[in-house]
Amino acid sequence: MPHKTDIKSLNYNELVQYVESINEKKFRAAQLYSWMHEKLAESYDEMTNISDKLKDTLKEDTLYTSLKIVKMQESRIDGTRKYLFELYDGNLIESVFMKYHHGNSVCISSQVGCKMGCRFCATLNGCVRNLSPSEMLDQIYRISRDTNERVSNVVIMGSGEPMDNYDNVIKFIELLNSERGLNISQRNITVSTCGIVPKIKELADLKLQITLAISLHAPNDELRKTMMPIANKYSIAEIMDACRYYLDKTGRRISFEYSLVKGVNDTKECANELIELVKGLNCHINLIPVNPIKERDYEQSEKNSIKNFKDMLERKGINATVRREMGRDIDGACGQLRQNHIDENSAI
Ligand code: SAH
Which residues are catalytic? Predict the structure, then answer.
């Protein structure tokens, strides 16, 4: 960020302090907060009860994050929408809007790019920079305005590793959850991580009621290392310890993501190993038929293997669901988000 104050990343108390620091009355903070986080204003110009003089000061002194919609694609299959946004510095990110029976979900990105380099994922080119809290929030705000729909669930599962941008992600959750803002319940927020152990523990200590999702994808370290470079740094045993710690501190059931790749991790042996691994742990396993990306040779598991894998888990009393593929025709499904979509042909 430049030297300007990133006004939409401030919580209410910080905004009060800021407003007082520019010699304005405290009630201005409530007005500004409501315009930004409740009415989702795109710029100061929309703020009818703020004087022109104050607007000028704010325009001079602050950065008002408002993402630009560069492209929007809507799936013909399920109405999922994928948005390509431009940030103030020209960087591009993607977010996805999904309609479910239980409400609308937005999948947001937490970084421009990602440095984790998972083999099955399309976000391949390294991490350019972290997103600020306001840039994470504004993905939801812009989508909410564009669709005219209420967003009830937020998943931090787009590009980036949220635990690699920890402080900003925590601040983002605080703002999203704020009663003065969209007031999205912590229980409707999911953070997905490739398994950065120290950060999982730090998050546990905050005792938030959010859902922690772990990208596991393999039941042993040897196989996991072939899929995810981060497996060389943290073992599955350490991740499981951190999960037990999280469960202990928060009482929240852990979610494991397991992307099924044909002939790689979808065998009976893998299912049995996975069963042993999570035995006795209060968890849910989310099976994701891997979405092929053009750079890699991973293929999606056969329908039959997916069903068998799920049945094996369920027979042992383990909660398992197969994640519905949303927006496959617009490359909006898991692992299909990337940075540079601007030149691609699109349906719209
Ligand atoms: N960095 C975070 C969040 C981003 S990915 C994480 O690793 O959890 C969100 C989920 O989609 C992760 O479980 C990720 O492993 C999975 N995923 C990535 N690429 C995929 C693909 N091609 N097919 C299916 N799932 C994929």
Answer: 94, 334
